[in-house]
Amino acid sequence: MWDAHDGMGWWMLLGSVWFVLFWVFIIWAFTRVLSGSIRGSQASESAMDIAKRRYARGENTREGFERLRRDLGS
After folding, report:
1. Where do the DSSP E strands lie in the chain?
2. Do residues 45 and 69 lie in contact, with contact meaning Cβ atoms separated by under 8 Å?
């Protein structure tokens, strides 16, 4: 009867830590899946789209853009 104050002790702490780690893993896995699907949609961008965007930003000259367009066949 005098030892009733010990309760679960370390088992409760260990269970709480596992519970938190479980949810951290679930959230981490969910964000990895979502970031992978976002990157996958960006990967479908064509080479011509990239060339147009770089030309619009001023990263490429008109001559360079025309050469890329000819090389890509569009």
Report:
1. none
2. no
Beta-carbon contacts of residue 68 (< 8 Å; ≥ 6 apart) = 51, 60
Say if residue 29 is in the same domain as residue 50.
Answer: no
Is 39 found in the same domain as 7?
yes
Cα dist from 40 to 17, 22, 25, whole Å: 34, 27, 22
**pTM of the entire structure?**
0.42
Q: Please answer whether residues 65 and 51 qualify as being in contact, where contact means their C-beta atoms are separated by less than 8 angstroms.
A: yes
**What residues make up the domain containing 2?**
1-43
39 plus 49 within the same structural domain:
no
Domains: count for the chain: 2
Instruction: Give the pLDDT confidence of 37-58 residue by residue, as tens digits.
Output: 666 555 677 888 889 999 999 9
